[in-house]
Amino acid sequence: MLLTLILSVASVLPSSCKKSGRVNPDTIIDNSEACKILSVKKIYDAQKHCAFSDLTKFKGAWYLVFRASDNHAYTKNGTVEVLKSTDGDTWAPEVSYETPEMDLRDPKFDVNNNQLLVFTQGVKFNPDKTVKFQRGVVMEAEKDPFTRSKPYTIDYDAPAYWPWRFSKLKNTSYAIGYSETPKVLQLVKTDNFKKLTKVCDLSYIERVPSEGTVRFRDNNCYILLRRSGPTLLGVSTVNDMCNFKWIELPIIGMGGPNFVFYDANTLILSGRDYPNNDYTYAGGRTSIFVYKIKENKTFRVATLPSGGDTGYPGLYLQGNRLWVSFHSAHEGTTKIYLAKAELNVSNLR
Question: Record's superkingdom (predicted)?
Fold first, then answer.
């Protein structure tokens, strides 16, 4: 999971994409004064396992998307549920998608040709729980959001990989595509959500890299990348997206990593965290972090009411107001929640 950083390079990783540096992690600094939680509200629990959310505002309305099923995986095929709100408080079903042959997973929003769309991964599992096949599935509105959506599959090269969250630079959307077996880790792109092409191979990264969020700011490309060890933050220029410098953040195994920019030197991050260093199922929480780029400092500013199967947040930031959609099993079954917070991060050093 990048910028012209005033940081020393601790080591050099072998790379098929030119030279890549790595900066070792510092410690997490806890500072709850930088984030005031205003509310945490349960949004949806109509099925036993509701998870993997994303959040956006489009044409004056709020949209929330997530997967719904009876378990995390391997049982009933998941559906993609889209909720809509005009005020951010009252949510109503907008549309539900399902395919008889595939479990729909990890839905995320993007915008293409001024239309809101959902990208999700359709998976068919074998009886032994290995993946039989997987396809990228796109739901795109023809007029107003989702009023006449027609799901279609997106084409990408073998071996199959999992494109996770798309972010747009000009008219092109970029994502991290990954697979554990065989190992695939690529930066990929699409101009039309019909076909994906590889930008860069990142398979030199160690410790089981997987889910990643790509963002762009000030002619730089940033990637926040989950691993089995310290989470990685990478930065490159948009003119050379195969030459990343990698910073190891002191967040271990960040589940469903997401981030937004507060300013040019400040990132707001969120995902599944283990604040008590309990790396078991029970130890998982959804936390909010602030990362200061020039200072190379990571602050944990809030841990939301959550536990067990949790994380995978959607983020929306406007000024100092941050909205976080996330799932959690701390109240029994896995449900969708929305937290609203007020940030005060300018004095963090």
Answer: Bacteria
**Residue among 13, 9, 37 at smallest CA distance from 23:** 9
Between CA 313 and CA 318, with CA 315 as vertex, the angle to 5 degrees is 160
What is the mean predicted confidence (pLDDT) over 93-100? 89
**Parallel, antiparallel or unpaired: strands 297-303 and 28-30:** parallel
Segment among 69-78, 188-197, 255-264 with least mean pLDDT: 69-78
Model pLDDT for residues 25-45, shown as the tens digit of each residue:
679 999 999 999 999 999 999
Beta-bridged to residue 125, according to DSSP, are 131
Q: Are 296 and 23 in contact (CB under 8 A)?
A: yes
Q: What is the pLDDT of residue 143?
A: 66
Is residue 43 a contact partner of residue 325, using CB atoms and an 8 Å limit? yes
pLDDT at 11: 32
Angle ∠(83,86,92) on CA atoms, nearest 5? 30
CATH class of 11-343: mainly beta
C-alpha torsion sign, points 279, 281, 282, 288: positive
Q: Strands (DSSP E) along 230-284, which ranges?
A: 230-237, 245-252, 255-263, 266-273
Antiparallel, parallel or unpaired: β 245-252 and 20-23: parallel
How is 165-226 classified by DSSP, letter by letter? B-EEETTEEEEEEEETTTTEEEEEEESSSSB-EEEEE-TT--S----EEEEEETTEEEEEE-
If you average pLDDT over residues 63-70, what whole number do you get?
94
Q: What number of other Cβ atoms are within 10 A of residue 60's Cβ?
A: 6
